[in-house]
Design a protein that fits this description.
The protein is of the alpha/beta class. It has six helices and seven strands; from the N terminus they run βαβαβαβαβαβαβ.
Length: 214
Amino acid sequence: MNNITIIGAGPGIGTAVARRFACENFSVALIARTQKTLDPIIAELSSTGCEVVGELADAGDEQQLTRAIARIEQQHGIPDVLVRNAAVVRMDEPGELDRKELLATWETNVLGGMTAAVLLGEKMASAGGTLLFTGGMPTPSPMLTSLSLGKAALRSLAALLGNELGPKGLHVATVTVSGGPVAPGGPWDPDEIAEHYWRLHQQQPAEWEYEVTH
Protein backbone atom coordinates (compact mmCIF):
# COMPACT_ATOMS: atom_id res chain seq x y z
CA MET A 1 0.00 0.00 0.00
CA ASN A 2 1.25 3.47 -0.88
CA ASN A 3 1.57 5.90 2.01
CA ILE A 4 1.60 9.61 2.67
CA THR A 5 2.97 11.53 5.64
CA ILE A 6 1.55 14.98 6.39
CA ILE A 7 3.49 17.27 8.70
CA GLY A 8 1.26 20.00 10.05
CA ALA A 9 -2.01 18.11 9.86
CA GLY A 10 -4.93 20.34 10.72
CA PRO A 11 -8.61 20.93 10.00
CA GLY A 12 -8.07 22.74 6.67
CA ILE A 13 -5.58 21.76 3.98
CA GLY A 14 -4.02 18.97 6.03
CA THR A 15 -7.32 17.14 6.47
CA ALA A 16 -8.32 17.71 2.85
CA VAL A 17 -5.04 16.30 1.53
CA ALA A 18 -5.28 13.31 3.86
CA ARG A 19 -8.86 12.67 2.70
CA ARG A 20 -7.89 12.98 -0.99
CA PHE A 21 -5.06 10.47 -0.76
CA ALA A 22 -7.08 8.12 1.43
CA CYS A 23 -9.61 7.97 -1.40
CA GLU A 24 -6.81 6.57 -3.54
CA ASN A 25 -6.12 3.79 -1.02
CA PHE A 26 -3.08 5.42 0.55
CA SER A 27 -2.31 4.78 4.18
CA VAL A 28 -1.97 8.08 6.03
CA ALA A 29 0.43 9.23 8.74
CA LEU A 30 -0.25 12.55 10.43
CA ILE A 31 1.99 14.78 12.52
CA ALA A 32 0.46 17.57 14.59
CA ARG A 33 1.20 19.44 17.80
CA THR A 34 -1.80 18.25 19.78
CA GLN A 35 -3.93 15.15 20.14
CA LYS A 36 -6.98 17.40 19.95
CA THR A 37 -6.00 18.23 16.39
CA LEU A 38 -5.27 14.64 15.41
CA ASP A 39 -8.32 12.90 16.89
CA PRO A 40 -11.06 14.17 14.51
CA ILE A 41 -8.93 13.55 11.41
CA ILE A 42 -8.05 10.03 12.54
CA ALA A 43 -11.71 9.34 13.37
CA GLU A 44 -12.90 10.55 9.96
CA LEU A 45 -10.35 8.56 7.98
CA SER A 46 -10.69 5.43 10.10
CA SER A 47 -14.44 5.44 9.49
CA THR A 48 -13.76 5.01 5.77
CA GLY A 49 -11.45 2.04 6.32
CA CYS A 50 -8.25 4.04 5.80
CA GLU A 51 -5.17 2.88 7.66
CA VAL A 52 -4.14 5.97 9.62
CA VAL A 53 -1.73 6.77 12.43
CA GLY A 54 -0.86 10.01 14.20
CA GLU A 55 2.23 11.30 15.96
CA LEU A 56 2.64 14.37 18.15
CA ALA A 57 5.42 16.83 17.36
CA ASP A 58 6.00 20.54 17.06
CA ALA A 59 7.06 20.97 13.43
CA GLY A 60 9.56 23.61 14.50
CA ASP A 61 11.24 21.42 17.12
CA GLU A 62 13.97 19.37 15.43
CA GLN A 63 14.14 16.66 18.10
CA GLN A 64 10.38 16.16 18.31
CA LEU A 65 10.00 16.10 14.54
CA THR A 66 12.90 13.69 14.09
CA ARG A 67 11.41 11.28 16.61
CA ALA A 68 7.96 11.44 15.04
CA ILE A 69 9.29 10.81 11.54
CA ALA A 70 11.39 7.88 12.79
CA ARG A 71 8.36 6.28 14.45
CA ILE A 72 6.26 6.65 11.31
CA GLU A 73 9.03 5.27 9.13
CA GLN A 74 9.35 2.27 11.44
CA GLN A 75 5.62 1.54 11.22
CA HIS A 76 4.88 2.46 7.61
CA GLY A 77 8.21 2.55 5.81
CA ILE A 78 9.51 5.40 3.70
CA PRO A 79 6.66 7.64 2.54
CA ASP A 80 5.74 7.73 -1.13
CA VAL A 81 4.49 11.27 -0.54
CA LEU A 82 5.58 13.77 2.09
CA VAL A 83 3.56 16.95 2.57
CA ARG A 84 4.99 19.78 4.63
CA ASN A 85 1.99 21.90 5.64
CA ALA A 86 3.01 23.46 8.98
CA ALA A 87 3.18 27.23 9.41
CA VAL A 88 2.96 29.94 12.03
CA VAL A 89 0.29 32.31 10.74
CA ARG A 90 0.12 35.55 12.70
CA MET A 91 -0.25 39.26 12.12
CA ASP A 92 2.99 41.15 12.63
CA GLU A 93 4.61 44.19 11.07
CA PRO A 94 8.31 44.77 10.32
CA GLY A 95 10.16 45.17 13.64
CA GLU A 96 7.21 44.09 15.77
CA LEU A 97 8.71 40.73 16.71
CA ASP A 98 11.97 40.59 18.59
CA ARG A 99 14.76 38.36 17.33
CA LYS A 100 13.75 35.37 19.47
CA GLU A 101 10.12 35.54 18.36
CA LEU A 102 11.06 35.87 14.70
CA LEU A 103 13.46 32.93 14.91
CA ALA A 104 10.69 30.83 16.47
CA THR A 105 8.48 31.42 13.42
CA TRP A 106 11.45 30.63 11.14
CA GLU A 107 11.97 27.28 12.86
CA THR A 108 8.44 26.19 12.03
CA ASN A 109 7.96 27.89 8.67
CA VAL A 110 11.34 26.98 7.14
CA LEU A 111 13.72 24.88 9.20
CA GLY A 112 11.17 22.15 9.90
CA GLY A 113 10.89 21.64 6.16
CA MET A 114 14.65 21.31 5.89
CA THR A 115 14.72 18.79 8.75
CA ALA A 116 12.10 16.60 7.08
CA ALA A 117 13.83 16.79 3.70
CA VAL A 118 17.21 15.86 5.15
CA LEU A 119 15.72 12.88 6.98
CA LEU A 120 13.66 11.51 4.11
CA GLY A 121 14.61 13.16 0.83
CA GLU A 122 17.35 10.81 -0.36
CA LYS A 123 15.38 7.73 0.70
CA MET A 124 12.26 8.96 -1.09
CA ALA A 125 14.22 9.86 -4.22
CA SER A 126 15.45 6.32 -4.66
CA ALA A 127 11.83 5.14 -4.72
CA GLY A 128 10.58 7.95 -6.97
CA GLY A 129 8.67 9.82 -4.28
CA THR A 130 7.01 13.23 -4.08
CA LEU A 131 7.79 16.04 -1.63
CA LEU A 132 5.20 18.82 -1.53
CA PHE A 133 5.33 22.09 0.40
CA THR A 134 2.36 24.28 1.18
CA GLY A 135 3.46 27.72 0.09
CA GLY A 136 1.82 31.10 0.25
CA MET A 137 2.25 34.87 0.24
CA PRO A 138 3.30 35.23 -3.42
CA THR A 139 3.05 38.97 -2.71
CA PRO A 140 4.69 39.85 0.63
CA SER A 141 2.52 41.78 3.07
CA PRO A 142 3.86 44.16 5.75
CA MET A 143 0.97 43.03 7.93
CA LEU A 144 2.20 39.41 7.73
CA THR A 145 5.92 39.95 7.92
CA SER A 146 7.08 36.70 9.51
CA LEU A 147 4.83 34.62 7.27
CA SER A 148 5.94 36.51 4.17
CA LEU A 149 9.60 35.93 5.03
CA GLY A 150 8.98 32.28 5.84
CA LYS A 151 7.03 31.48 2.69
CA ALA A 152 9.64 33.20 0.49
CA ALA A 153 12.36 31.09 2.11
CA LEU A 154 10.26 27.93 1.80
CA ARG A 155 9.84 28.55 -1.91
CA SER A 156 13.62 28.84 -2.24
CA LEU A 157 14.10 25.68 -0.18
CA ALA A 158 11.80 23.76 -2.51
CA ALA A 159 13.76 24.99 -5.53
CA LEU A 160 17.08 24.02 -3.94
CA LEU A 161 15.81 20.56 -3.02
CA GLY A 162 14.37 20.11 -6.49
CA ASN A 163 17.71 20.92 -8.08
CA GLU A 164 19.50 18.53 -5.74
CA LEU A 165 17.07 15.62 -5.52
CA GLY A 166 15.02 15.93 -8.71
CA PRO A 167 17.70 14.26 -10.85
CA LYS A 168 17.75 11.42 -8.31
CA GLY A 169 14.02 10.80 -8.68
CA LEU A 170 12.25 13.03 -6.14
CA HIS A 171 9.54 15.35 -7.40
CA VAL A 172 9.71 18.48 -5.25
CA ALA A 173 6.99 21.08 -5.71
CA THR A 174 5.15 23.87 -3.92
CA VAL A 175 1.40 24.43 -3.77
CA THR A 176 1.14 28.17 -3.27
CA VAL A 177 -2.09 29.38 -1.70
CA SER A 178 -2.41 32.87 -3.09
CA GLY A 179 -3.93 34.54 -0.05
CA GLY A 180 -7.30 34.35 1.60
CA PRO A 181 -9.24 32.32 4.16
CA VAL A 182 -9.09 28.58 3.56
CA ALA A 183 -12.69 27.49 4.06
CA PRO A 184 -15.17 25.11 2.41
CA GLY A 185 -17.19 26.62 -0.39
CA GLY A 186 -14.98 29.68 -0.86
CA PRO A 187 -12.29 30.59 -3.38
CA TRP A 188 -9.77 28.72 -1.24
CA ASP A 189 -11.76 25.57 -0.62
CA PRO A 190 -9.40 23.03 1.01
CA ASP A 191 -10.78 20.13 -1.05
CA GLU A 192 -10.06 22.04 -4.26
CA ILE A 193 -6.57 22.89 -3.01
CA ALA A 194 -5.98 19.21 -2.17
CA GLU A 195 -6.51 18.30 -5.82
CA HIS A 196 -3.26 20.08 -6.67
CA TYR A 197 -1.34 17.77 -4.33
CA TRP A 198 -2.82 14.67 -5.91
CA ARG A 199 -2.24 15.92 -9.46
CA LEU A 200 1.39 16.80 -8.73
CA HIS A 201 2.02 13.37 -7.30
CA GLN A 202 0.51 11.73 -10.39
CA GLN A 203 2.82 13.54 -12.81
CA GLN A 204 5.50 11.69 -14.71
CA PRO A 205 9.03 13.21 -14.65
CA ALA A 206 8.64 14.73 -18.12
CA GLU A 207 5.50 16.52 -16.87
CA TRP A 208 6.75 17.71 -13.49
CA GLU A 209 5.58 21.11 -12.35
CA TYR A 210 7.48 22.80 -9.56
CA GLU A 211 4.95 25.32 -8.34
CA VAL A 212 1.21 25.66 -8.73
CA THR A 213 -0.82 28.56 -7.39
CA HIS A 214 -4.36 28.39 -6.11
